[in-house]
């Protein structure tokens, strides 16, 4: 039986004169049927633009997010902690790669996206503009920041756009490990000396509110939520996911023996959720605009890392060109023309 996706491809391939309304109807039917949209399927321009915006922002967050934690690699308190932290940071680099690759299937390139990040034309998550002042911050990032990320990202595994949803499956598995290592690290500190306990509490006090801001502005100020939910890119609103995170975090904080820095936090029997105090949205927008404590430092470091890595990119491109020549001779031009952008342009195997 032909799925809506197959019909969509057949229609697009078979009738050059197919009008936009017919394409749109097939796209809408696929979304309504909870089918995946794939790179070669017709999609509205705004759907493509929204996905590029969100996936790029997500990818940028992953690679900028390596910086605050990398601050502690040389000062990790044991070889075991250092190895764990290095593995986690490498995972974040990997997440960036999966996500840039997913964005490339939409017709952009990693170079273009990085240029936009470096020029300040694309965002990354507000959370990474806060400093990591003590070792306990590594635990607080794992527990709270990765915990918030998982809450936000598990529903993205069901994103209507195939490459993004599939990338999220592996990312979420790894984030789950990250969250547990942060929890375990904080547990060790919380049950340690009074000084270690105080250090853990101080980290939680500083990271709690910025973690709640990660979910984005309140629903009535969220410019993109309604459309993104209609397209099944997002499955839940910012406020719904924030509430889910608060509800999960309170018992975890109790088990850790730490308190969350919100005097208004209490169980609401009627709602079946925890009530929590007001979020400082002025602070959030200031950080998003570039005025957070570490925005400048993060961007300077990112641009420097990019510039210093130019020789690696040149060497990789030279190697790929050489390799392409060798396999091109052996396998013919079809193999040589492979790769995501060629496939996406419909050239793969037919060049
Ligand atoms: N920070 O209409 P809205 C990680 C912007 S990586 C900065 O609600 P949307 C990790 C938003 O972009 C975590 N900007 O937007 C990595 C929009 O501005 P533009 C990253 C924010 O897209 C390493 C405007 O505010 N996770 O976990 O519907 C180590 C209005 O917002 C933020 C993702 O990226 C923010 N917090 O919803 C450890 C997940 N929030 O674009 C951990 C994927 C909002 O119009 N992204 N803005 O200029 C999403 O799920 C959604 O994009 C958001 C925002 C929920 C974040």
From TrEMBL:
Transmembrane parts of this sequence: none
UniProt cross-references to InterPro entries, sorted A to Z: Aromatic_CoA_ox/epox (IPR052703), Ferritin-like (IPR012347), Ferritin-like_SF (IPR009078), PaaA (IPR011881), PaaA_PaaC (IPR007814)
Gene3D superfamilies: 1.20.1260.10
Residues covered by region (Disordered): 321-351
Top-level taxon: Bacteria
PANTHER family named among the record's database cross-references: 1,2-PHENYLACETYL-COA EPOXIDASE, SUBUNIT A, PHENYLACETIC ACID DEGRADATION PROTEIN PAA
The protein's name: 1,2-phenylacetyl-CoA epoxidase subunit PaaA
């Amino acid at each position: 039986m032909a799925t809506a996706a197959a019909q969509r491809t057949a229609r697009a391939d078979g009738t050059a004169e197919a009008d936009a309304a017919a394409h749109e109807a097939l796209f809408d039917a696929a979304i309504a049927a909870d089918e995946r949209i794939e790179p070669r399927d017709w999609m509205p321009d705004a759907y493509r633009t929204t996905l590029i915006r969100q996936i790029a922002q997500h990818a940028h967050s992953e690679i900028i997010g390596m910086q605050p934690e990398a601050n502690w690699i040389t000062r990790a308190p044991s070889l075991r902690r250092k190895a764990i932290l290095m593995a986690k940071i490498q995972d974040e680099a990997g997440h960036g790669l999966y996500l840039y690759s997913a964005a490339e299937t939409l017709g952009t390139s990693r170079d273009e996206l990085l240029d936009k990040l470096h020029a300040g034309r694309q965002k990354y998550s507000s959370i990474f503009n806060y400093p990591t002042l003590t070792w306990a911050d590594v635990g607080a990032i794992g527990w709270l920041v990765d915990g918030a990320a998982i809450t936000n990202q598990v529903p993205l595994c069901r994103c209507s756009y195939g490459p993004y949803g599939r990338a999220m499956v592996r990312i979420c598995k790894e984030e789950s490990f990250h969250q547990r290592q942060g929890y375990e690290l904080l547990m060790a500190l919380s049950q340690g000396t009074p000084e270690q306990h105080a250090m853990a509490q101080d980290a939680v006090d500083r990271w709690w509110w910025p973690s709640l801001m990660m979910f984005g502005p309140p629903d009535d100020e969220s410019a993109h939520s309604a459309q993104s939910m209609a397209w099944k890119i997002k499955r839940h609103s910012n406020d719904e996911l924030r509430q889910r995170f608060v509800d999960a975090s309170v018992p975890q904080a109790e088990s850790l023996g730490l308190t969350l820095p919100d005097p208004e936090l209490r169980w609401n029997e009627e709602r079946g959720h925890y009530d929590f105090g007001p979020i400082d949205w002025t602070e959030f927008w200031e950080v998003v605009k570039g005025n957070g404590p570490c925005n400048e430092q993060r961007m300077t470091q990112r641009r420097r890392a990019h510039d210093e890595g130019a020789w690696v990119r040149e060497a990789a491109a030279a190697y790929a060109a050489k390799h392409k020549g060798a396999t091109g001779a052996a396998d013919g031009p079809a193999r040589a023309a492979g790769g995501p952008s060629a496939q996406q342009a419909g050239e793969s195997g037919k060049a």
